[in-house]
Backbone:
């Protein structure tokens, strides 16, 4: 019951019950039965802890996203396009269970689950950046993940209300947000150059 394959199977069944039952123990119990296990096995698989269930679900999607991206030639793309492609691949994976995603967002909003939500977003954007070829280990490592975390979270919320064909509005929204954050390093560089020039003029 603790194996990844078993937990993945239970999660796949859980998503059909979440829209009506939410991220609840009752939904998990039904998913366990649907997966062919016995009543009470939900306490063996996830200790009956829905936070652990959500954490595993987010990791499950990240693993699927990573596998899909391995099939895409990201190296031929600009960095912005690599990141945008990864985000949209993840959203397409979520498309068939959009209401379950909405419920997961509501569940993660609870004040006691802030760390869980932040960890989930961090793991997702970290996976995206590695897929995009990021090898930074300095301060930029954290800056990139913080900026993309904001973009991804905002795009996810936008996507939840998007009813356009092939999510064209979400794609445009994501592109605009990425354009904005891509400008930040340039702005920082200009500010740094300006301060250097000012120091030289002041003889500092």
Residues:
């Amino acid at each position: 019951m603790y194996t990844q394959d078993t937990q993945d199977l239970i999660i796949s069944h859980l998503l059909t019950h979440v829209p009506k039952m939410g991220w609840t123990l009752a939904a998990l119990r039904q998913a366990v039965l649907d997966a062919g296990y016995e009543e009470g096995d939900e306490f063996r698989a996830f200790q009956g802890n829905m936070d652990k269930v959500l954490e595993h679900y987010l990791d499950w999607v990240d693993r699927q996203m990573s596998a899909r991206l391995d099939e895409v030639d990201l190296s031929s793309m600009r960095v912005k396009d690599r990141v945008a492609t990864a985000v949209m691949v993840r959203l397409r994976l979520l498309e068939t269970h959009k209401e379950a995603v909405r419920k997961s967002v509501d569940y993660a909003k609870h004040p006691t689950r802030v760390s869980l939500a932040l960890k989930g977003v961090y793991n997702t954007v970290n996976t995206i950046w590695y897929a995009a070829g990021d090898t930074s280990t300095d301060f930029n490592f954290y800056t990139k993940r913080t900026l993309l975390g904001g973009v991804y979270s905002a795009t996810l919320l936008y996507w939840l209300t998007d009813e356009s064909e092939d999510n064209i509005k979400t794609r445009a929204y994501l592109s605009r947000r990425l354009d904005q954050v891509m400008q930040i390093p340039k702005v920082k560089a200009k500010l740094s150059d300006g301060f250097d020039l000012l120091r030289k003029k002041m003889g500092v």
Summary: Residues 187-199 have pLDDT under 50 and may be disordered. Residues 61 and 90 are 7 Å apart (CA to CA).
